[in-house]
Amino acid sequence: MTTLIRPGQRVRVHVNLHLRRLAVCDPRTTRVITYVEDLVLTDVQFRVQPRCAQKVQQSQVRAVCAYAVGLIAEPDPGATRVARVHCDPRARADFHDAATGQPITHADRVGFSSVRAYLLAQPASPTSAARDAADLDSGCRGCRGCTTDPHECPQRSKDDVLFGADPAGAGRDLR
């Protein structure tokens, strides 16, 4: 990632069709900050300027009237592409799912790669119950087969030991 843009920065992104690259712009001034090949945005809003789109449809001459606004995020190599986002103001004046034609106005996470946009699946975050189960299976927290003395287990908080709480929920009083 170039030093001109940083994670968390709000930007406006459109495709420069002459350069076949993504133009990253300041959303306030609309001036190009840099050009990139790949980019990930979060909290994305897709916008089309209606008058510009109407003009493009009438004249069939391309112009920048569709763009995405969002926050730059770190790329996730394991991210799953859910759908391809498409916009061609000459044919249709909105962003939509390329496969289904369903309009798309906003998204949680979008990946741009080779001048194409893709909705990305949110990374799966384990629930607290699943995390607790994983902790128990690993033998920590001083219970259920753990060889560590419950009062010396590094995973237990001082309050658990002082108040006799059993973090695994085994129902035993550890006092």
What does this structure look like?
This protein starts with 9 loop residues before the first strand and ends in a 12-residue tail after the last helix. With 175 residues, the chain is α+β, with helices and mostly antiparallel strands. It folds into 2 domains: 10-120, no CATH class; 128-163, no CATH class. The protein has 3 helices and 9 strands, in the order ββββαβββββαα. A 9-stranded antiparallel β-sheet has the order 3-2-1-5-4-8-9-6-7. The protein has helices spanning 50-59, 128-137, 158-163, and strands at residues 10-16, 21-25, 32-36, 38-48, 66-73, 81-88, 92-97, 106-113, 116-120. Residues 154-175 are annotated as: Disordered. InterPro entries: Gp82.
Question: Notable features of this structure?
Answer:
175 residues, 36% strand, alpha+beta, single chain, disordered C terminus
In short:
The chain has 175 residues and is an alpha+beta fold. It has helices at 50-59, 128-137, 158-163; strands at residues 10-16, 21-25, 32-36, 38-48, 66-73, 81-88, 92-97, 106-113, 116-120.
